[in-house]
Amino acid sequence: MDNITTYREAVKEAIRKAMREDERVFLMGEDVGHYGGCYAVSMGLLDEFGAERIIDTPLSESAFTGAGIGAAMNGMRPIVEIMTVNFSLLALDQIMNNAATLLHMSGGQFNVPLVIRMATGGGKQLAAQHSHSLEGWFAHIPGLKVLTPATIQDAYEMVGLALADPDPVLIFENALLYNSKGSLDVHATPTPIGKALIHKVGKDITIVSYGISLFKALEASKTLAEDGIDAEVIDLRSLRPLDDETIMNSIKKTHKVIIVDEGWKSGSISAEIMARINEQAFYELDAPMERVCTAEVPIPYAKHLEDAALPNPEKIVAMAKKMMGKS
Amino acid sequence: MELDLNKAKEFYKEMLLIRRFEEKCVELYSNQKIRGFLHLYIGEEAIAVGVMSALSQEDAVFATYREHGHAIAHGVSAKSMMAEMFGKMEGCSRGRGGSMHLFDGATRFYGGSAIVAGALPLAVGMALADKMMKRNRVTVCIFGDGAVAEGEFHESLNLAALWKLPVLFVCENNRYAMGTALKYTESETDIYKKAASYKISSKQIDGMSVMDVAQAAKEAIASIHKEQAPMFLECLTYRFRAHSMFDAELYRQKSEVEEWKRKDPLTLFENSLKDKNMWSEIDRAEMEDEIKNTIDEAVTFAENGTLEPIEDLERFVYSEASHG
Ligand SMILES: Cc1ncc(C[n+]2csc(CCOP(=O)(O)OP(=O)(O)O)c2C)c(N)n1
Ligand SMILES: [Mg+2]
């Protein structure tokens, strides 16, 4: 049964459900308790679960992320919340050198069932230290799984999927999506980690996206439809593992592809996707692959410059038309 | 501390300017002229004014995202700050930084940093360079109580002490890091004691008293020059407003805020000037007028500023020839 809710509520509901069902689950991070979460995701959870399971941490990203790893190794199922991906850089050592490697270094003895959630993305004029989308970076690292819920359903399901996973899973929640509304079916069978979803079926061109870019791609596909271009829109959902099969199958049908990514182009997940298409579906392509990414600049404060830096539906439409020979 | 009338006027006016400037910012934020995050310094003005009063033109400043007060007190122009917040090219950071990233080379104001504790290592390096080049200047690094929990705080204090660097560390302890009270995040809530454990001479002072801050800062700067070693001031203070423009303030009691408002640095200073029979010499109305003019001019300047051409979007990622 579906009900209409927000992305924020969906994440909260998923955390609440997990905490009710499994005493090993706890949430820790900056301002998750008394403040209610910097994006209000955990509002009310301190009252419901108490300060032992909803833990306000000091500004010590490296230490509390590492503590999450240690607790996970000792049988707990921590959810570590890092306010935004920008601050996760202070915890990068723990994520990379410990969470991602312990299982391997220990010859398979110590797995790390840790969930790390963080907000990501630009678009709010927060300038160069608060606006970046670095999820593609994390997808570089073997040992991690990287999820990018775009829809309300995924915002809900991915918390449970991540907690059920025996290995470290990073969840990137685009901050502009917290207020978005949509339907949620809490009884649906979750779509597994590593499976992409086709949000709009089309035959002319494939648009691969993830996170907030999904909605930009869907909006672009509507404009394109008015011009007689039937785009297929894919939501990757997971950047590691990547669902090669869904991407390649779509290209076998459309023979053209645009990748939309709020990360920068150089060394990005969009570059990785292009490389895989080259390896697996080169002869299916009718046109060079294209990308709509963020300009290669730290995000500026001024609105007109920030807007110009980020991907948007107009840029996707223009690119698609160019590829279809309709510009 | 000896306080002559000129100094008294200067301190009071500077604090009032910061207060009024930020009240204007709130209004402009509501009118959507200023966007992004806006962190107000209201209630904490005595620290910026007191600390900056002890610096010379040569000294450098690193501050946080709550830095309007520090920038004003250090001599960054209200015009260029307002234009910055409007996202205009005439802004002190060309509209690229906004409220959290005010930079001004002319006054050696090095930001405007929005990663908590991120500037402490930079201050250490700035001072290291001065020491290596035998320049007799000081670097001031201002940060909040929240920064104390980061590794960079501890690493930087150790380096500064170990290498005997001319850094003045100023912790603005306003008791909260966003919505989390210090008592929930620190096993030792007297922050100056942490500095002492690195063998840095440190002091806890009343951050609501501009006189106390100015006096302590003056002594600290003198000591840094004399001892060739860092100093640490913990200023006890309180932010009267929300953490930023989005904050329901569920984490503190209204009564607590009211109690602190009784220690408003402007009121405290007014009272102490009354005790010294100096208050009657200060023409408050005239001061308000002058401040209003300064702020009106800043807003007009910002309104009339220009938007950087979009073709320039990818500039300043790498140095241009002029950077040398
Ligand atoms: C490394 C890092 N973690 C988290 C944040 C988000 N954040 C911004 S300000 C802040 C509170 C900082 O408090 P404090 O240092 O006491 O300064 P105050 O805001 O009270 O002046 C937090 C958690 C950040 N900017 N940087
Ligand atoms: Mg604070």
Could you characterize what this model shows?
The complex is a heterodimer of chains A (327) and B (324). Chain A is α/β, with parallel strands linked by helices and 327 residues long. Chain A folds into two domains: 3-184, 3-Layer(aba) Sandwich (Rossmann fold), CATH 3.40.50.970; 197-323, Rossmann fold (3-Layer(aba) Sandwich). Chain A has helices spanning 7-21, 45-49, 61-73, 85-88, 92-99, 102-105, 135-138, 152-164, 213-226, 244-254, 269-281, 303-309, 313-323; strands spanning 2-6, 25-29, 54-56, 77-84, 115-120, 145-147, 169-174, 181-185, 197-200, 205-209, 231-235, 238-240, 257-264, 290-294. Chain A has a seven-stranded mixed β-sheet, sandwiched between helices. Chain A has a five-stranded mixed β-sheet with strand order 9-11-10-13-14, sandwiched between helices. In chain A, strands 1-8 form a two-stranded antiparallel ribbon. In chain A, helix 8 links the parallel strand 6 (145-147) and strand 7 (169-174). Chain A is globular and about 60 Å long. In chain A, 55% of the residues are buried. The model of chain B has no long low-confidence stretch (mean pLDDT 97). The N and C termini of chain B lie far apart (44 Å). In chain B, 43% of the residues lie in helices and 12% in strands. Chain B has helices spanning 5-30, 45-53, 68-74, 78-85, 120-132, 151-162, 191-197, 210-227, 254-261, 265-275, 284-303; strands at residues 60-64, 109-113, 139-144, 167-173, 176-177, 180-181, 201-206, 231-236. Chain B is globular, with a radius of gyration of 19 Å. Chain B has one domain (5-302): Thiamin diphosphate (ThDP)-binding fold, Pyr/PP domains (Rossmann fold, 3-Layer(aba) Sandwich). Chain B is of the alpha/beta class and 324 residues long. In chain B, helix 1 packs antiparallel against helix 10, helix 2 (45-53) packs parallel to helix 3 and helix 5 (120-132) runs parallel beside helix 6 (151-162). Classes of the chains: A alpha/beta (327), B alpha/beta (324). Chain A binds chain B through residues 30-31, 33-36, 38, 56-63, 86-87, 90, 124-130, 295-298, 300-305, 308-309, and chain B through 35-37, 84, 87-88, 93, 95-98, 100-101, 113-118, 146-147, 149-151, 177-181, 184-186, 248, 250-251, 307-308, 310, 313-314, 316-317. Bound molecules: thiamine diphosphate and magnesium ion (MG). Magnesium ion binds at residues 144-146, 174, 176-177 of chain B.
